[in-house]
Write a structure and sequence with these properties.
- Helices cover 74% and strands 1% of the residues.
- It is an all-alpha fold.
- Helix 3 (38-57) packs antiparallel against helix 4 and helix 3 (38-57) crosses helix 5.
- The radius of gyration is 37 Å and the shape is flat.
Length: 437
């Protein structure tokens, strides 16, 4: 049962993500044509996704004409049945016909095939343009709040999806087509995204945060004043009702002012009580801060273990050349002239031809020289490719070097993986070939 419901739940999440990304378009249509409440109408749009998914995955409608007829009938019944023959019904019917086929595509294709990453950028642009337009219309205050929160959610999705897509694009694919991604890099990337989202949230809601701080300040002083007045009323002696109606000859006498000692004592008790309250608050904050500090230390240690002690998925076999895809210490250097730094390292490590002691080293020397010359002429070198894949890329970039590169690739693999010796004649012939280029 769970195995059957899991694909349906996954489809709902994908459909909800699409609705969030293109919510500005749906909001414009809603304001122009729909007279019903917003959130139930968005729920109806989700029904069209579900109907299309069910038609393909469960009813097994695979022909184009059968899906078209089913889409017209299903979307029409839902739209006209709920909104009757009005503009709301017609527009919903039109949207339902399209969203029905989106549900069909979700059933037969992967989401990255029907929802490429550039659509996320389009969604962010739509949120920005519509929020600017609504800012100058005071009557759309409610819609502005919806745009803010859904736009923030859209930004979160865009950052996570686009960053993970970028990591996958630079990772090494395996034989079955899947990419090998280090979990440590994923965790570091997600922590960076969370920090960036926190900055975005603070900047975007600076006005709301300032209002919240003012409210907290007013709330604190208001309750403190109430507490002081409550304590004053508790210390005052109540006047009996009978004493109010009974005349007292002493009241006619002039009242003497209290002595300076009692005035001083009253003030001393008041300030002592206030000091005790202040000390109690400081002690309470100290213990809360101490516990909070311990909790932060525990979380920090867990994160460090999670980030630094994870086994690397790609750490198998011999590794001829390697580079770190991410480093907290060298974050700036990672994104600044990475390719140039790699070439400088190649040149710095390179020995001269006469200093090489065997033919295997000479073959590696020729391979490295080929890379340096190709990059200097415009070839784009990718460190995550193997030698064989790099040779194929160079051949595609410069087809006239096919025979020489195949010979070099064969000798390089022989020097690296085989015990069969490489003759001097093969090395000299290959070097002469590259000298003539």
């Amino acid at each position: 049962m769970i195995n059957k419901l899991y694909p349906l739940g996954k489809m709902w999440l994908q459909a909800a993500a699409e609705v969030i990304v293109f919510f500005p378009v749906a909001l414009i249509l809603y304001l122009l044509f729909i007279s019903n409440p917003l959130w139930p109408w968005l729920g109806v749009l989700m029904l069209f996704y579900t109907a299309g998914y069910a038609a393909f995955a469960y009813v097994r409608l695979v022909k184009g004409y059968s899906l078209t007829i089913a889409s017209l009938m299903c979307s029409g019944i839902i739209a006209i049945g709920l909104f009757s023959f009005t503009w709301s019904g017609y527009v919903t019917w039109f949207l339902g016909f399209y969203l029905f086929f989106r549900g069909v595509n979700m059933a037969k294709k992967t989401w990255d095939q029907i929802f490429p990453p550039y659509l996320l950028w389009i969604g962010l642009l739509l949120y920005f343009v519509e929020s600017v337009i609504f800012h100058f219309n005071p009557s759309t205050r409610y819609e502005q709040n919806i745009l803010f929160w859904l736009g923030l959610l859209n930004a979160i999705m865009a950052l996570f999806i686009l960053s993970q897509t970028q990591i996958i694009s630079v990772s090494m694919p395996t034989k079955n087509g899947r990419h090998m991604i280090n979990s440590t890099i994923l965790w570091q990337n997600r922590l960076l995204i969370v920090g960036l989202l926190a900055v975005i949230f603070v900047v975007a809601s600076i006005k709301q945060l300032a209002e919240a701080l003012l409210w907290l300040n007013k709330f604190f002083w208001k309750n403190l004043d109430y507490l002081v007045q409550k304590l004053n009323r508790m210390t005052d002696k109540p006047i009996p009702d009978a004493a109010v109606n009974t005349p007292n000859p002493i009241q006619a006498l002039p009242q003497a002012s209290p002595s300076a000692f009692w005035i001083w004592l009253e003030k001393a008790v008041f300030y002592l009580f206030a000091a005790l309250i202040f000390v109690a608050l400081v002690i309470l904050l100290y213990f809360l801060g101490k516990r909070l500090f311990r909790t932060v230390k525990i979380i920090y240690k867990w994160l460090m273990l999670r980030l630094n002690n994870q086994p690397l998925a790609a750490e198998k076999g011999y590794e001829d050349e390697s580079t770190k895809l991410f480093s907290w210490k060298n974050l700036k250097d990672t994104y600044r002239d990475l390719l140039t730094d790699g070439l400088n390292q190649l040149r710095a490590k390179e020995a001269k031809w006469d200093d090489l002691t065997n033919n295997a080293e000479r073959i590696r020397f020729l391979y490295r020289q080929l890379l340096i010359r190709s990059v200097s002429k415009g070839f784009e070198f990718n460190r995550h490719l193997t030698v064989q894949e790099t040779m194929i890329a160079i051949q595609q970039w410069k087809p006239d070097s096919l025979s020489k590169n195949e010979h070099l690739s064969h000798l390089y693999n022989q020097a690296r993986y085989s015990d069969h010796p490489i003759t001097d004649q093969e090395v000299i012939a290959l070097r002469e070939e590259y000298k003539r280029r």
